[in-house]
Amino acid sequence: MTIKELIERNNELRPGLNDENRKFYDDFLVYSRTISWLKDEQAVEELLLRTLQELLEAQKRGQTARHYFANDPKGLADSLLKKLPTRWNSFAKFLFYTFFGYLAIAFIPAISVPGKVVDLGAYMLAGLYLTAAGCFVIWWLGTAVYRFQQSTFPKWLKMILAFLTGIVLIFPAFAISLWMKTVLRLSFDGWVGIAAIVVMLMILLVYQKISTPNQIIDRPIYYYILFQALVGILSRLPFVEGIMATKSGKFVLAGLLVFGLIIFWIVSWRMLRQLKKEDES
């Protein structure tokens, strides 16, 4: 079975657990997937499915997960994942995905407006920060998520704390890209800008093909970036560039960018609804 098929099979079988066993297994699954980024994903998903099948068999015999596996989802995950081989090339891929993925995602909207001077050095520094922060988060996230789920905080407070934590981690990258000044400040006008957008789209395409992103979450982002790229290319074409330099042309360009943002939020809302339905099924 492929990784996708293993995940789909896992999602199909999980509703067969009773409430107590599902709570145990969900904690085990979330923690396992979070801390296993240096493990082979195929082996991890096979392990998760095999554990779920064992739990379903134990449930038929009247045993609970906490009785069958002992009262410790985290300890169970640690002991099982330890037996899987470590893949250090996953670490190298993570560094590549984070750094170049950020550049492709952030840089295309930044140069979509002709005549704007873009600080390439600041974006590269922001990418390096996110890469370093990502390494720390992945090292720390597994235990943090597990303890967070086990806490007795109300759901609304957990959502607020998670949102604030994300803001604290991501804000420095925005601050660096927006306010830091470096010597690599460039203007991407005309065909230079078109070539830069095409190159970044190619990097983004490679990133999407070789990574395994969550399509429900990432699809709106890709749509938005593609829309921004098309606006950036069209506004730089010789027969359009002069029009965009006028006051009315700038209003049209601003309207297109706002329209793209509205479409992004609508698609995101629909995708999140789909994700919620899949979690509840």
UniProtKB/TrEMBL annotation:
Report which superkingdom the organism of origin falls in.
Bacteria
Q: Which residues cross the membrane?
A: 91-111, 123-148, 160-179, 191-209, 221-239, 251-272
Q: Supply the alphabetized keyword list.
A: Membrane, Transmembrane, Transmembrane helix
| SUPFAM superfamilies the UniProt entry points to | BH3980-like
Q: Where is the signal peptide?
A: none
Naturally occurring in which organism (per UniProt): Fructobacillus papyriferae
Asked whether the keyword Transmembrane helix is assigned, the reply is yes
Name of the protein this chain belongs to:
Integral membrane protein
User: Which segments of the protein form a coiled coil according to its record?
Assistant: none
